[in-house]
Amino acid sequence: MPNTSVDTVICGAGIAGISAAFHLAVKYGVRDVVLVDELPPLSLTSDKSTECYRNWWPGPGDAMVSLMNRSIDILEQVARETGNVINMNRRGYLFATADPARIPDFRQAAEEAASLGAGPVRVHAGQPGDLPYVPAPGHGFEGQPTGSDLILDQRLIREHFPYLPEETLALVHPRRCGWFSAHQLGMYMLERARERGVRLLQARVEGVDVVGGRVEAIHLQSAAGPQTIATRRFVIAAGPLTKGVAGMIGVELPMHFEFHAKIAFPDHLGIVRRDAPLVIWTDPQFLPWTQDEQDELAESDETKWLLDKFPSGVHMRPEGPADSPILLSLWTYHTEPVEPVFPPIYDPYYPEIVMRGLMTLIPGLKAYIGHIPKLTVDGGYYAKTQENRLLVGPLPVEGAYVIGALSGYGLMSSPAAGELLAAHVTDSTLPRYAPAFALERYQDPEYQKLLENWGATGQL
Questions:
Q1: Which of 219, 335, 342, 421 has the greatest count of CB atoms below 10 A from its CB?
Q2: Residue range 98-122: average pLDDT?
Q3: Which secondary structure element, helix H or strand E, spans residue 225, and what is its range?
Q4: How far is CA 94 from the centre of its chain?
Q5: What are the backbone dihedrals phi and psi of residue 361, each rounded to the nearest 5 degrees, phi first?
Q6: 406-417 burial by CB neighbour count: b if 16+ within 10 A, else e?
């Protein structure tokens, strides 16, 4: 592309940038849009996701639930229009505990989510008058309940989830949750956007001209050499690089970064049912080492930390079609901020730690001790704000916008986040939740007070 002028330049062809381009072109009819990325679409962090979605979020306020409900509405619309090319299901998330002290927390979380718009709570305690528990199907998303099921009946737990530990006392099963194909969603939106005139340019943003307080031009570097694109609208959708790109226009964004990895391995013994939901163990745990292993680990300062108590949150789900043996699992036990580096640096103990943690959640996996299946590891960076809520909207430089800090929920939030960004860019009517995600929220004294005592962030 020679030096030229366009309506809107979007920096970043991950799922956020693609969604923004899709909504600008398809919903609002903005035809002169250029997506710029030096990498192939969806390849920096979007393809490292576990591809899950949920409308199960804590407060304060209902902004996150409202945003996610809208995002899921869009996902379901895409699924219907395409014959479910995105392979969307509604298996739900399944939070499990063996700690009786956690049961009131489960009930409170379910009631809070219900009050914020996630749907009603159904309690299954083995009592007369309990509503019947309706299991989630392995495929499809139509005709399923919303809200959540709080399961306290041990008979139901063993009947429907026999792979969980026998000591499991309670489950909460949020239902407007599941997963879908990130690649299929991204490519669907990209192709629809390109049909409406969006162009994809493989290049790196090297600088931005700001004249009189507003964006004037974007400087690029590509295999064809340096280029300059004149534009009055610049959208930063650069994932873990967003903060650096914003710095090019003199804007400091309140973001930090965490590295999160996942493993994939074949459950060739078929220990986990292929129709299982995403399952999360909510109790802290010590890893199940043998006595000999404990003695060996204790001998070295490098490894004795592996004997410490690990936090809650190990989770897993089946991946692929019914005949696939693959399981995906994540467990983030280090959440300290880091600076993104590419390629990422992995904890060498991570695969072993996750597999051991999974053995607490799924005891049958202990059959793999001593001969753990060949597994793969990948991961990416969560770009996060302090309270783990995204940034979508205008920046202090006129004509500049951001869609970022999508944390670990970028795939699930991107349909609604892209729609919100496009509404900002086109000066269209904004949804009620828009102020909750604008950069200006940090200038609100009441919001600053909320931040001082912010509780749960919704991160698994």
A1: 421
A2: 97
A3: strand 225-230
A4: 16
A5: -70, -40
A6: bbbbbbbbbbbb
Q: What is the pLDDT of residue 458?
A: 85
**CA torsion, ordered 377, 378, 381, 386, to nearest 10 deg:** -40
Kindly write down the DSSP assignment for every residue of 332-387, as one continuous string.
----------SS----TTHHHHHHHHHHHHSGGGGGGTTSPPP-EEEEEEEEE-TT
User: Regarding beta strands 170-174 and 148-151, do their DSSP bridges make them parallel or antiparallel, or are they unpaired?
Assistant: antiparallel
**Residue 297 class from Cβ within 10 Å (0-12 exposed, 13-18 middle, 19+ buried)?**
middle
Q: Contact, 68 vs 416, CB < 8 A?
A: yes
Structure tokens at 324: 């696939």
Gap between the Cα atoms of 206 and 222, Å rounded: 10
Instruction: Report the SS3 class of residue 173.
Output: strand
What tens digit of pLDDT does each residue of 127-157 get? Answer: 998 999 999 999 999 999 999 999 999 999 9
CA end-to-end span of the chain: 43
Phi/psi for 369 (5° steps) reads -60, 130
The CATH number fitting domain 4-51+182-255+387-452, selected from 3.50.50.60, 3.90.850.10, 1.10.3810.10, 2.60.40.150: 3.50.50.60
Q: How far apart are CA 363 and CA 357, in angstroms?
A: 10
196 in helix, strand or coil? Answer: coil
Q: Which top CATH class is 93-176+258-384?
A: alpha beta
pLDDT (tens digit, 9 = 90+) per residue, 277-301? 999 999 999 999 999 999 999 999 9
Q: Give dist(CA 14, CA 444) in Å, integer.
A: 31
- Contacts of 101-104 with C-beta under 8 Å, sequence gap 24+, read 102/169, 102/170, 102/282, 102/283, 103/152, 103/169, 103/170
Give the whole-angstrom CA distance, residue 235 versus residue 205: 12
Considering the chain, tell me which residue range(s) the CATH 3.30.9.10 domain(s) occupy: 93-176+258-384
CB-based contact 231:215 (threshold 8 Å): yes
Residues 277, 82 contacting (CB under 8 angstroms): no
Q: How far is CA 114 from CA 66, 68, 278, in A?
A: 12, 14, 20
pTM above 0.85, yes or no: yes
For residue 60, cis peptide bond before it (omega within 30 degrees of 0):
yes
Q: Inter-axis angle of helices 63-81 and 182-195, to 10 degrees? A: 70
Left if phi > 0, otherwise alpha if psi is -120 to 50, otherwise beta: which for 304?
alpha
